Amino acid sequence: MTKTKKMKPNNVTEYESEEPQESEISLEVAIGQQVRALRKRLNLTVANVAKQAKLSSGMLSKIENGLTSPSLATLSALAHALNVPVTSLFRGYEEQRDVTMIKAGEGLVIERRGSGAGHQYQLLGHTIGKPYSIEPYVISISDMSEVFPVFQHAGTELIYMLEGKVAYRHANKTYELEPGDSLFFDAEASHGPEEILALPCRYLSFIVSQGSDA
Predict the structure, then answer these.
(1) Structure pTM?
(2) Which CATH entry fits the domain spanning 108-210: 3.40.190.10, 3.30.450.40, 2.60.120.10, 3.40.50.2300?
(3) Quick check: 205 and 159 in contact, CB under 8 A?
(4) Cα gap 111→29, rounded to integer Å
(5) CATH, domain range 3-90
(6) Cβ distance 34 to 56 under 8 Å?
């Protein structure tokens, strides 16, 4: 995106965007609407605010109509003229963000090594289109299995105990985890529950790794 530098009377330098991209238009419009709303709330004219911010009335009009992309310095000057923090000028702008809500007990039950009778994995969400991958699970164990799978995969993992007691192995060490305890580790080392010490056993597992597009 190219910008044109213009010199106005009173030595005011203004920058206009000649080729605003579609992704920026909604932000520009949101800022403009917020500036206009704040100005009207204070019963100020365009000329009043422009003078305080050391802008031309024409430039302020363009900003309020979302026709130009103001610089950070211009936004700071406008915020000062309107007696508000700069962040308040972005209040009307919200990007689309991924969100997933899972009701209690309704996580997606998936098959992993070791899953089956008495050993359940529920996926609580997943990332989309990110340079990283996050997999949150709630893992429930309801029987005293004698053999548990050993996991080894890319990324970092955090386990947080909810109930029960488990002896959890990471590499060549074993850790006894009770409710409230956590274990944060490099998941490329072999790991997994070694012995269930108290049932029922439930814990959260968060696996973070590079996304396939990274």
Answers:
(1) 0.57
(2) 2.60.120.10
(3) yes
(4) 47
(5) 1.10.260.40
(6) no
